[in-house]
Amino acid sequence: MRYLTVTVTLLLIGCATQPIDMHSAATSELLERQAAIDRKVREDDFGVYWGMTRWISHAAEKNSVLKEKAAIDAELARRHVTRGYPIATATGQPGMVRSPYTGRLYDVRAVPHGALVRDVDANKLFRRP
């Protein structure tokens, strides 16, 4: 019976949500995943809820999710995402920025620094650096 419990636990751990690639993901994806992780932590929604497998799968999944949250927080800090609106990334071209949501290039030469710009694809606002 013990071997069956361990086998089932290992199979269920493999079914957990797979982490996303932090560097290639859009900021909106990272923010959505961060909110999902915050909900999961708040509700203690880890692992399978029956028998011994709950303890094992709960600890394993919680550990991996908390590591993913730390990586997301670090990536958002690297992108200078502040509370409210994320900041666009500058490109090599003067007056051009890349949207933090879709990666689309925008000409912001007429927009003052720190002002809000709308991403037309995502219909969301971001700040000009």
Short description, anyone?
The protein has 129 residues and is an alpha+beta fold. It is 45% helix and 12% strand. The chain has 2 domains: 2-78; 89-127, no CATH class.
Beta strand %: 5-15%
Q: What's the overall geometry?
A: elongated
Q: Can you tell me the residue ranges where pLDDT is under 50 for at least 5 consecutive residues?
A: 8-15
* Major sheet attributes: 3 strands, antiparallel
What's the SSE pattern?
A: HHHEEEEE
* Average predicted local confidence, pLDDT: 79
Structural class: alpha+beta
Number of helices: 3
Helical content, roughly? 40-55%
Q: What would you report as the Rg, rounded to the nearest angstrom?
A: 20 Å
How many domains is the backbone divided into?
Answer: 2
Q: Give the termini separation.
A: 60 Å
Give, in spatial order, the strands making up the sheet with the most strands. Answer: 1-2-3
Key words describing this protein structure:
single chain, two-stranded antiparallel sheet, 2 domains, 129 residues, alpha+beta, elongated, 3-stranded antiparallel β-sheet
What does the model show?
The structure is a single chain. The protein is an alpha+beta fold. The protein folds into two domains: 2-78; 89-127, no CATH class. Helices cover 45% and strands 12% of the residues. It is built from three helices and five strands; from the N terminus they run αααβββββ. The protein has helices at 2-14, 27-43, 51-78; strands at residues 89-90, 96-98, 105-107, 116-119, 124-127. It has a three-stranded antiparallel sheet with strand order 1-2-3, with no helix packed on it. Strand 1 (89-90) and strand 2 form a beta hairpin. Helix 1 packs parallel to helix 3. The model is unreliable at 8-15 (pLDDT under 50).
